[in-house]
């Protein structure tokens, strides 16, 4: 009988290697899963359909698309729970997450990166109004599908005008504006001084005898109101903003978004 001498250290290393190989793919899958039905609101058929829609939305927008449901928000608001979940998992900077929060009885759409600009406050409000209409009948699949469909529609429409984004100019732009402005001020000052010097009057030497020739005559006057008019006009309301309001999550990341109660 042949006796094999196997080093226990080798066995241990092989065991550790096998453990890492088998567990690593599972961890990656959990971190990047795009449909997480913690509240168990969806059937298997719903999940299969929505996964296809999520993948189509992801391909169209080139951004991460996440759908999440929960029955326990861990004491957080819907916004905090949605933002934190997106930040704490392996999703890209550009993307959005739609949350159905059964704990706070809210839906929330959290945006990140470029999707903040595509999904503006006005667009989010319109989308959530439509999605919320399905919730009283517990039609969660249609609510989610509405959000995904609108995201693609708005992405195809492009960025709205007048988003109010801050424009940061470089140093060269500042110099191109500053130097001509200084030259203009100096030139204007020189012209002013030259004209002032030309038209300045000499110090007066003549004094008018106002006590001798001056007179004062007071005349009583009275204002009488004949009639009055009241003019009214319609002041139009300002159009809704086409921009996106943002906030900072607990993890220090910038998000846009909006929510609805149900």
UniProtKB/TrEMBL annotation:
Listed Low complexity bias regions: 241-252
Record flagged with keyword Transmembrane: yes
One Pfam family here: TPM_phosphatase
Family matches, as InterPro entries: TPM_dom (IPR007621)
Feature: compositional bias, Gly residues: 253-262
Region (Disordered): 233-262
Keywords on record: Membrane, Transmembrane, Transmembrane helix
Transmembrane segments: 174-195
TPM domain residues: 36-150
Keyword Transmembrane helix: yes
Protein name listed in UniProt: TPM domain-containing protein
Source species: Vagococcus lutrae LBD1
């Amino acid at each position: 009988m042949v006796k094999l001498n196997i080093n226990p250290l080798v066995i241990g290393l092989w065991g550790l290697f096998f453990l890492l190989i088998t567990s690593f793919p599972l961890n990656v899958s959990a971190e990047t899963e795009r449909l997480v039905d913690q509240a168990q609101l969806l059937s298997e058929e719903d999940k299969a359909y929505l996964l296809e829609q999520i993948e189509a939305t992801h391909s169209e927008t080139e951004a991460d698309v996440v759908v999440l449901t929960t029955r326990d928000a861990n004491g957080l608001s819907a916004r905090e729970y949605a933002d934190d979940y997106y930040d704490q998992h392996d999703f890209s900077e550009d993307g959005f997450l739609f949350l159905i929060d059964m704990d706070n009885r809210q839906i929330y759409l959290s945006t990140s990166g470029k999707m903040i600009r595509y999904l503006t406050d006005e667009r989010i409000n319109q989308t959530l109004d439509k999605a919320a209409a399905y919730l009283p009948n517990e039609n969660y699949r249609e609510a989610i599908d509405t959000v995904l469909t609108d995201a693609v529609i708005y992405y195809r429409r492009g960025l709205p005008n007048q988003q109010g984004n801050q424009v940061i100019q470089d140093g060269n732009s500042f110099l191109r504006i500053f130097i001509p402005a200084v030259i203009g001020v100096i030139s204007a000052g020189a012209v002013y001084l030259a004209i002032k010097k030309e038209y300045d009057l000499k110090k007066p030497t003549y004094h008018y005898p106002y006590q001798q020739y001056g007179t004062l005559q007071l005349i009583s006057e009275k204002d009488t109101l004949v009639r009055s008019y009241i003019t009214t006009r319609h002041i139009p309301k300002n159009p809704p903003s086409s921009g996106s309001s943002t906030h900072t999550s607990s993890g220090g990341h910038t998000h846009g978004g909006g929510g609805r109660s149900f």
